[in-house]
Amino acid sequence: MRGMATNLRTPTEHELTQFRKWRSIALFHMPYMASILFSLRLIAADGLGTLAVDKGMRLYIDFPAVDVTYTDDENGQNLLHEASHIFADHASVRDEIGVTAEQAMTFNVAADAAINDDLVDAGLDSFATSGIMPSQFGEPDHQTAQYYFRSLIERIEDQKPEEAEGGDDTDESDNDSGNTGAGQPGESSNGEGKQSDGDSDEDDGQPQFVGCGSVSGGQPAPCELGDDDDMGGAAKPATKAERERIQAVTAKDVEQYVANNGIGSVPGTLVETARAVFAEKAVPWQKELGMLVRRSARRASGEGVTDHRKRDRRNHRLTIMNTETGTSRRIILPGQSTQTPSIHVIRDTSYSMSDDELFAAGREIAAISKSLRIKNEDLRVSDCDVGLGVEFGYSSLASLDQVHGRGGTNMEEALVELFDRYDKDHRPLPSAVITLTDGFTPWPDEPIVKGVPVIACIIDSAVGTAIGMTPDTPPEWIHSINVTSETAHRASA
Q1: Cα(83)–Cα(88) distance, rounded to whole angstroms?
Q2: In sequence order, which residues have a C-beta less than 8 Å from that of residue 489 and are 6 or more positions away?
């Protein structure tokens, strides 16, 4: 099929109008897929016979073919099918689990089954009657592509002995070759809501492409461009960073839609996918937070800080010779400080911080304790809503169980009061101050005390967003990290 003749070109105005109509229909069904749908690079692919997407989010459409084969509503649903492959990042999943080239179409079928049941739940009825569904190979709905792939591979392996015996009285459901689009009982399918029997094209006698393109983890469409071919700038592929950003924005839109419309307004597996995206994106900010905390604590931990009250034990035998008298004198070098770093955490306990957001904040406090090996007097915690609450030392997650406050939030006043307390109590200033908040608060414009870094961890709040609140951006002098945790979104799933 790779040799199938296809003519790639930019779409005509009429074709662009058609595509925009199908995209509008798709947005009517699933508005939270907007970021993906508007990021697709549209290419007219005459002779393809269907539509497909590559890893660079380039959408290939044989407009004359799909206009005849599908209704406008079905074409809108087909776009959502491809968008779901992008959101689930099935191309990366295929690489992670080691799918071979011979197994590509079997994985495509598994990926189709993993998203079609969600599309049916979202009201896209064409997939219920003609799409690949898990029930067609005896599996339950709402499992992962990996799960369905393993099931299909097992079916293929179970059928091999029968084929070896030369039995020819097998039905169509035993045709799971892994490279013909089989894997679904009955007819082969292109996974886009209509069946394809894989027969030769009536016009040129060439086999019709069956699949969704490389974006699904299946076989690439025969017309797919290489990474270094952008049709003279008309079809530039999306970069990995761009794909990740689009996926993250879509995950956020899914969560926002659930917050606005209630549980069940988005198929549960799509919500799980959104959580998984947030979990993956959590790694960079956790590393960034750890780096900032360690950097802020470096001076207090004694790294490179000279202490004239101590002797350097490693270089205690140094001497200097007087060339005139021939005598020598011993030199005593200063040592270095080995003080333990101290961190003060301000935990936002306002009403917009749900139990899940507070749990996420507690988890970060525990991570700070483990990373720096500090507790109690060296890791102080203060709750904050309209003012700074009681202060206590962190000893374990249990010490965070009692929450004080639940009013509004004013982090500006809290920071002022915090440093004022240290001054009044004649205590050494902390190595760093970390605020764990949803960001719905004013911030001080200028540093309150110079030399003490302030790190703002902005935890995403489904509660605050749902009631129309907008986070305030911390000033430039505060290190700001956006924290999106799967636990912070569990309530909306």
Answers
A1: 9
A2: 255, 274, 275, 278, 356, 460, 462
CATH topology assigned to domain 281-300+340-492 = Rossmann fold (3.40.50)
How many angstroms separate the Cα of 120 from the Cα of each of 133, 196, 416, 485?
A: 10, 20, 54, 28
How many beta carbons lie within 10 A of that of residue 324, not counting itself? Answer: 6
Work out the burial of residue 298: count CB atoms within 10 Å of its CB; fewer than 13 is exposed, 13-18 middle, 19 or more buried.
middle
| pTM assigned to the model | 0.54
pLDDT tens-digit readout, 324-367? 777 777 767 666 555 577 899 999 988 878 777 888 788 888 88
Q: Which of 139, 171, 132 is nearest to 154 (CA)?
A: 139
Contact residues for 372 (Cβ-Cβ < 8 A; gap 6+): 293, 294, 297, 341, 343, 378, 379
* % pLDDT > 70, the chain: 74
| pLDDT over threshold 80, residue 471 | no
Pairing of strands 306-311, 334-336: antiparallel
Interval 325-334: pLDDT, tens: 777 777 676 6
The mean-pLDDT minimum among 228-242, 362-376, 476-490 falls in 476-490
Provide the residue type at 477 as one letter. Answer: W
Query: Rounded to whole angstroms, how far apart are CA atoms 148 and 109?
Result: 8
19 sits in which H/E element: helix 13-29
What is the spatial distance between Cα 115 and Cα 122, in angstroms, rounded to a whole number?
11
Q: Provide the 3-class DSSP secondary structure of residue 328.
A: strand
Write down the domain spans for the chain: 7-238, 281-300+340-492, 306-336
Phi then psi dihedrals of residue 321, to 5 deg: -100, 135
